Amino acid sequence: MPRYRLDIEYDGTPYAGWQRQAGQHSVQAALEQAILGFSSETVTLRGAGRTDSGVHATGQVAHVDLARDWPDDTVRDAVNAHLKLASETVAVLAAAKVTDAFDARFSATGRHYLYRILNRRAPPALEKGRVWWTPGRLDAGAMHEAAQQLLGRHDFTTFRSAQCQATSPLRTLERLDVARSGDLIEVRTSARSFLHNQVRSMVGTLKRVGEGAWTAADVKAALDARDRAACGPMAPPDGLYLVKVDY
Amino acid sequence: MPRYRLDIEYDGTPYAGWQRQAGQHSVQAALEQAILGFSSETVTLRGAGRTDSGVHATGQVAHVDLARDWPDDTVRDAVNAHLKLASETVAVLAAAKVTDAFDARFSATGRHYLYRILNRRAPPALEKGRVWWTPGRLDAGAMHEAAQQLLGRHDFTTFRSAQCQATSPLRTLERLDVARSGDLIEVRTSARSFLHNQVRSMVGTLKRVGEGAWTAADVKAALDARDRAACGPMAPPDGLYLVKVDY
């Protein structure tokens, strides 16, 4: 059975998240349904990142095994045609045959997320659901400086959902950059893998720094506490995008 | 009566356009309704650009006269609060008191539009309604070169809607740049004023150049024909944004 790598974009707003769940609509189910429509096969996709409800992607990666050896572009176009028929806000950017050694989740060596904050008095008209709107002025420079406290290998229990199923809270954070461009503050972060809700927990904590309520030392103390209760209020899913997966 | 300049952003998708029309929902009516909700006054806004149905703005400008002398920020925040209550996709970015000599439409000395084309095989998942999706590869360099044929003062009858109410078809086009950035082709254009449907007509014609059906000389011939029938198929409203107005 040929294996295909799918590069996927989605607006996560209408979905219960990436992962298939009984009684709820997910990005994974939307794609599996589209593949069923095109190839008449009931398949299971495996994705690189199990994004939460409302989280978006411009570079999600998944793999799927199909019975027939279709041309790559046929897979991409046919799945997109079926996604469109079902009015899904999901698109396959590329489909490419890969070897059986490729596993979208377990072969991934890096994951890159972008978090977008719209920092202005007026609410978003064009980007509703695509940004976190924070009307109070944030100091992006202070947020960036504090963010550097979190780089490296740490126990990220503070920044981990109580529902996180990872066996270890240890992760190595490779990048956590905060930069302002006009009214937009972009947080870019990279790691081999992240804990459940880690990015949104870190961004919510950095927002406290941006508004002057916390210092960089407070962020370090929160990390060292290894206590979920020490985390700032979690940022909403709206601003979060899975942008790239490394293999 | 103090006059206020309003800088406005909107997602034009749900509206019949900027201008108030009987029996249809417009951006102007949404704002007038929000002002009524906040100040109990029935007002008439005048906007710099009468954008069509489905056209967006990040920098529309309008003026309005109010009975009371409110602080600028109160006007901005109160109008936004009422827009939100009504679930409008419109936001006031800034409100500022101006003299009676300021007229959003007649004082404008320049208008700047952006047209965004998503040029890739996969349809947009995140930017549906915000871009013109063209799956066939377009040559942005050829489009830019052909666009330069349209710069300067010309009779733009070819690129003007049959419904255009301007007394003269003469306009001076100051900028028409086409540039690719990844899968996105951005067309940026500036003039003191544009004819009805002029930007979408020019972009639709340039797309024909991008796909190799027309040459730069064909664009020049279409302009010289001064005939609406010589225009390429008009680009959809989805990709068009009024980004800035000069005074």
UniProtKB/TrEMBL annotation, chains A, B:
GO molecular function: tRNA pseudouridine(38-40) synthase activity
UniProt-listed InterPro entries: PsdUridine_synth_cat_dom_sf, PsdUridine_synth_TruA, PsdUridine_synth_TruA_a/b_dom, PsdUridine_synth_TruA_C, TruA/RsuA/RluB/E/F_N
Catalytic activity, reaction form: uridine(38/39/40) in tRNA = pseudouridine(38/39/40) in tRNA
Record has Zinc as a keyword: no
Chain sites annotated for binding substrate: Y113
Spans through the membrane: none
Keyword tags: Isomerase, tRNA processing
EC number: 5.4.99.12
PANTHER family for this protein: PSEUDOURIDYLATE SYNTHASE, TRNA PSEUDOURIDINE SYNTHASE-LIKE 1
The protein's role, per its UniProt record: Formation of pseudouridine at positions 38, 39 and 40 in the anticodon stem and loop of transfer RNAs.
Description of how the protein assembles with itself and partners: Homodimer.
Annotated protein name in UniProt: tRNA pseudouridine synthase A
Native species: Mesorhizobium marinum
